[in-house]
Each structure stands twice: as structure tokens, then as C-alpha cells.
UniProtKB/TrEMBL annotation:
Taxonomic classification: unclassified sequences, metagenomes, organismal metagenomes
GO cellular component term of the entry, any: cytoplasm
Keywords: ATP-binding, Ligase, Nucleotide-binding, Repeat
GO annotation, biological process: glutamine metabolic process
InterPro entries noted in UniProt: ATP-grasp, ATP_grasp_subdomain_1, CPAse_ATP-bd, CPSase_dom, CPSase_preATP-grasp, PreATP-grasp_dom_sf
Protein name: carbamoyl-phosphate synthase (ammonia)
One Pfam family in the UniProt entry: CPSase_L_D2
Domain ATP-grasp: 60-152
Keyword Iron: no
GO molecular function, one term: metal ion binding
Species, as recorded: gut metagenome
EC top class named in words: ligase
Enzyme Commission no: 6.3.4.16
UniProt-listed PROSITE patterns: ATP_GRASP, CPSASE_1
Length: 196
């Protein structure tokens, strides 16, 4: 596995302009802050912005500030908290560990028993790393986009459509470009939200 020590060894030997952590899944994102603390120059998205995107409270606050709608959600560290959130929002719920990219450990739960089983099997759940719970949107289309920004302007090359049902682990899914079932109106809205 990729470690801070391995990356710093290469960084110190090769003396690059910096390190781009956006490629390679969750591990590079997880070690970005430590790399920066050890003196590595991070190119692209900073560790502070990565944390803002992955910290549910900060992310929700940003979405509200930008007036971008999202499903009702909550965070839980215990079975009791999880059940309270599920009863407030309603089933089905998408549940997953925090600070995980691409849906690893993600599951759709349909009732209290499934939620209890998920919480019982969850590992490393702490107040800093709670279980994330979102209303599951039945029959939704999943899409994604990437953007490139210089800090002032953002460029959105395309909107990709996942061909599996929403909720499939993104590492196990495929996308199509151009998207087939997403209307031009919705693609434009996605571009607007991406560049907000």
C-alpha cells in the first residue's frame, strides 16, 4: 500500500515541483495532509479542501450556502443514533463509512434489522469517523463530472452517466459519455452546481 514514508522518500530524492493526490483513489487523499505537514508541496486540491469535501458537516454547510439541494442525511456512531436518524428520514437509507471514496462499505438498508446488522459490522466508527446516512433515492440516475479550475474559472468537460443503478460501488460501475438519459437542462444544472 501507498504510505507517507514511501512518497516522501521519492519526493526527497526526485525533488519534483509537487505531488498531485487526486489520482489513485482514497489512499492519496488520506495521506495528503501528512505529506503537506512533512514539507511536500501539494499541487491541485489542497488537504484543507479535501477535508472540507469529506467532512459531512462542512460539506452540508457548503451545499446550503451554495443553495445546492441534496438528500436528507445524518451521521451516527451508535445503533441508537442510527435508528433515530432512520426513523426521522425514513427508509430506504444509504449507509457508509465516512472518509471513504467510491462506495466501499456502502449499503442500502431497508429496515431497522438491516441497519442494526450494518452498525454491528461497522469498524473504526468514532465521533471523528461516523457512519454517514442518506435518504436513498429510488430509481435515481447517478452521474458525475470532473472540473478543472485555476481558482477563478472552472471548466467542466462533460457530465458522465453511470450505467448501473444508483448506489452501486463506483469502483464496480461504468460510465457513458455522452450521457444518454440525462436531459440537457439537467446537464446544464449539474455544470452550474459544479462551478458554483
Amino acid at each position: 500500500p501507498l504510505t507517507v514514508e514511501d512518497v516522501m522518500s521519492i519526493y526527497n530524492k526526485e525533488k519534483p515541483l509537487g505531488i498531485i493526490v487526486q489520482f489513485g483513489g482514497q489512499t492519496p487523499l488520506n495521506i495528503a495532509a501528512e505529506l503537506e505537514k512533512r514539507g511536500a508541496h501539494i499541487l491541485g486540491t489542497s488537504p484543507a479542501i479535501i477535508d472540507m469535501a469529506e467532512d459531512r458537516d462542512q460539506f452540508n454547510a457548503m451545499m446550503r450556502k451554495l443553495n445546492i439541494p441534496m438528500p436528507e442525511s445524518g451521521m451516527a456512531v451508535s445503533v441508537e443514533e442510527a435508528l433515530e436518524i432512520a426513523h426521522r428520514i425514513g427508509y430506504p437509507m444509504m449507509v457508509r463509512p465516512s472518509y471513504v471514496l467510491g462506495g466501499r462499505g456502502m449499503e442500502v438498508v431497508y429496515d431497522d434489522d438491516m441497519l442494526r446488522n450494518y452498525m454491528a459490522a461497522a469498524i473504526d466508527v468514532t465521533p471523528e469517523r461516523p457512519i454517514l446516512m442518506d435518504r436513498f433515492l429510488q430509481n435515481a440516475l447517478e452521474c458525475e463530472t470532473d472540473a478543472i479550475s485555476d481558482g477563478n474559472h472552472a471548466f467542466v468537460p462533460t457530465v458522465m452517466q453511470h450505467i448501473e443503478q444508483a448506489g452501486v460501488h463506483s469502483g464496480d460501475s461504468a460510465c457513458v459519455i455522452p450521457s444518454v438519459e440525462i436531459s440537457e437542462e439537467n446537464k446544464e444544472l449539474i455544470r452550474k452546481y459544479t462551478t458554483a
